[in-house]
Amino acid sequence: MPGFLIRRLNQISMSVFQERMQRLGLDLTSVQFAALVALSENPGIDQATLAGLIAHDRVTIGGVVDRLVAKDLVARRINPQDRRARQLALTDSGATLLQRLIPEVQALQHDILAGLSAAEVAAFVTLARRTTEAGNDRSRAPLRPRD
């Protein structure tokens, strides 16, 4: 059934990502990588916005950010317009690591979709995008693009 296959593909994706990070000597999860990408593209956002941009739940995004701060990859700053709010941004170390990782993560996509031709990969991505967009509001952590 599709649900089973999607779960298996997610397991494979997570395993391939973790193996590559271990090979590079890094302790970084795919969610942390997604957060780094989102912060690179949207410096100064808060945790709630970050959660929406990477389709991660608000309850656990704090732990993700805490770990990235502890690794000196992300900095929290007080928002000058709202002193209660915190803005997030990549540190220099975070930006350097992200630039190093982008080609690695792009390369491992082939391993995740092993067995598919280039045309099949393109078709798969098109169909996966269509179905995830159609079901976005059913997710406990919907993707919320920034306006």
Automatic annotation (TrEMBL):
<dbReference type="GO" id="GO:0003700">
    <property type="term" value="F:DNA-binding transcription factor activity"/>
</dbReference>
<dbReference type="GO" id="GO:0003677">
    <property type="term" value="F:DNA binding"/>
</dbReference>
<dbReference type="InterPro" id="IPR023187">
    <property type="entry name" value="Tscrpt_reg_MarR-type_CS"/>
</dbReference>
<feature type="domain" description="HTH marR-type">
    <location>
        <begin position="2"/>
        <end position="133"/>
    </location>
</feature>
<keyword id="KW-0804">Transcription</keyword>
<dbReference type="GO" id="GO:0006950">
    <property type="term" value="P:response to stress"/>
</dbReference>
<dbReference type="InterPro" id="IPR039422">
    <property type="entry name" value="MarR/SlyA-like"/>
</dbReference>
<keyword id="KW-0238">DNA-binding</keyword>
<keyword id="KW-0805">Transcription regulation</keyword>
<protein>
    <submittedName>
        <fullName>MarR family transcriptional regulator</fullName>
    </submittedName>
</protein>
<dbReference type="Pfam" id="PF01047">
    <property type="entry name" value="MarR"/>
</dbReference>
<dbReference type="InterPro" id="IPR036390">
    <property type="entry name" value="WH_DNA-bd_sf"/>
</dbReference>
<dbReference type="InterPro" id="IPR000835">
    <property type="entry name" value="HTH_MarR-typ"/>
</dbReference>
<dbReference type="InterPro" id="IPR036388">
    <property type="entry name" value="WH-like_DNA-bd_sf"/>
</dbReference>
